[in-house]
Amino acid sequence: MTKRLTTTAGAPIADNQNSLSAGERGPLLMQDYQLLEKLAHQNRERIPERVVHAKGWGAFGTLTITGDISRYTCAKALQPGTKTEMLARFSTVAGEQGAADHERDVRGFALKFYTEEGNWDLVGNNTPVFFIRDPLKFPDFIHTQKRHPKTNLRSPTAMWDFWSLSPEALHQVTILMSDRGLPQTPMQMNGYGSHTYSLWNEKGERYWVKFHFKTMQGHAHYTNREGEAIIGKTREGYQEALYGAIENGNFPKWRMMVQIMSEQEAEKTPYNPFDLTKVWPHADFPLIEVGIMELNRNPENYFAEIEQAAFSPSNIVPGIGFSPDKVLQARIFSYADAHRYRLGTHYEALPVNAPKCPMHHYHKDGSMNFFGQKTGADDAYYEPNSMGGAVEDPSVSEPPLKISGDGARYNHRDGNDDYSQPRALHDLMDDGQRQRLYQNIADSMGGVPEEIIERALGHFEKISPDYAKGIRKALKA
Ligand code: NDP
Questions:
Q1: How many domains, in total, are found in the chain?
Q2: Which ligand 1 atom is nearest residue 127's CA?
Q3: pTM tops 0.90, yes or no
Q4: Which of 6, 15, 104, 247 has most Cβ atoms within 10 angstroms of its Cβ?
């Protein structure tokens, strides 16, 4: 039976075609509240887009644990045989919400696992490292990726000025400019938690961990030219590919793996294991298989479930912990803060963000509180209480984080080797991959002043003379 149209308050609407006017030719009557409501709603259809990662594509799925890492973690979702519902949102970083999908950029790889002990979010990228290692530089870095305040255009000069003054960015720049900087579809790229996190077990032992999600579809990339040709035909290639694959039953999968480092080993690595610009070499810290992530359900409503999806590294669960990684520490604040601004105080209560396990807290009131009392008892609106409200559970206490040091602004560039790891990546590329890397870098330097290019080449020279030579050749071609 056809459903009856109503106002948002549920009253039936008699006419949705003609506004209420004082005569056939107008003017309109103020009491046409249906018209007012429609126009007012339309004015509020857009919410602030994310400052970074505005353009995204997402789907729901499952994480199935096939391996056994129970000696490292008591996290329920990571125990052998466990299946957990999850949500993934992929994104580009710099472009606005209407940006074309096939642009060269780092891809966001944000995961929300609805575990039985609360939501665990892993808010990573398709790269294992990042451009900066000190979060104080994050707003500056993002300004270089966004629009120039006067021209309102993206500025290659700003990008290369910043990068050439920030050698810690070279590792990520090398990945961005390599084949992996433009995956064909979201299914054909790896995901990385990127930060060092920790796992802890029932004995109270802590291990440092890196999370990896290896594509089971195989890697596939486009060159800049191929990307441009696709954008000429469709700006929504990723949405089409991901949505289409899932609608057709071709569910994409990733192999979830971890690298584990003991607290003792972390004292001995020649690099800071909590530095976001560094990987842990596989030969030293081999990948351990954990499970399979599969995406198998498209959202019913893109806005409600993907645009309003709020991922935050602050969402961890018992058995998983943070690490001293400075960028991770800053993101614990800034992601939740971004969601409070974009979506409102109670963004965690929206259906896509709400945990699927029982939830009790004493946060009260606030704008758009539609869930009432969540304390477990009507008269318990403070804690401690003798009214039967929810109480803490010491059995999920995290082992102490061993920290020592003096509070100071430590120079993060002092004595840091920013060249060896990009060199290792350059070394493993074949000739074709290297030529495309050089060409992509040269392409991205169009219009950049000579002295900035020379400063950047000085760093590439330190990675490898061949790297700098290759870029120089491509610049002249
Ligand atoms: P390995 O040879 O064991 O691993 C190389 C890694 O590089 C693989 O994970 C591979 O991914 C990945 N890779 C291949 N091509 C690219 C590319 N163009 N951009 C980014 N990653 C790529 O060596 P190491 O562990 O000693 O690392 C050597 C270098 O490889 C590092 O300095 C780093 O730049 C890069 N790397 C290392 C990772 C790590 O966690 N150790 C993770 C990703 C990159 P796949 O297996 O999916 O093909």
A1: 1
A2: 20
A3: yes
A4: 104
